[in-house]
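Case study 2.
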Amino acid sequence: MGLQIPALNKNDGTNSIEVNESIFGQSYNETLIHQLVVRYMAGSRAGTKGQKTRSDVSGGGSKPWRQKGTGRARSGTTRSPVWRTGGVAFAARPRSYDQKLNKKMFRVGIKSILSELLRQDRLVVSSDILLASVKTKDLYNKLKDIDAKRILIIVDAINVNLALASRNLPYVEVVEAINLNPVLLVSADKVIATPGALNMLEERLL
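Prediction:
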């Protein structure tokens, strides 16, 4: 016997949809979810900071003055870090902030988040959330009765009308099931998924 996800905008008379309990009935794993979110946010960091060492700065090929007899400190190049026009000692280099997390841990973490959303009544299914027009007002009317500051809509394939209509609603985010990430899930007060999106999630997470 599977779990039931309540339906929103029940124009077709459906009150709920049955989903796989092995995916939407997982226990809440706070440690793994935290690791999942930190890993995703770390991976989105650019890490493109960079400075030039003495070998990267152009010029400085000849010795500024002879080794002895000038009364000045010896110097081999004007691109040394002690010179104003020189390179940087211990220069910063581009780096990656990616953290390792295997696929099994990722799947278990997403299952845990989805299960907790369902337990908290923050996950619903809607078969008529897709729009026939690009009017923001049409989408607003569908969502106006939902008491949530941030709404995430998960679809199996991007609907152009829905994508365009949601752009003027700063509290609404539309994402394809294949591109779903943990940060979007945990930051949403209400998650609305199409039946097709739920099927895709079940296939992906089994």
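The chain has a mean pLDDT of 91.
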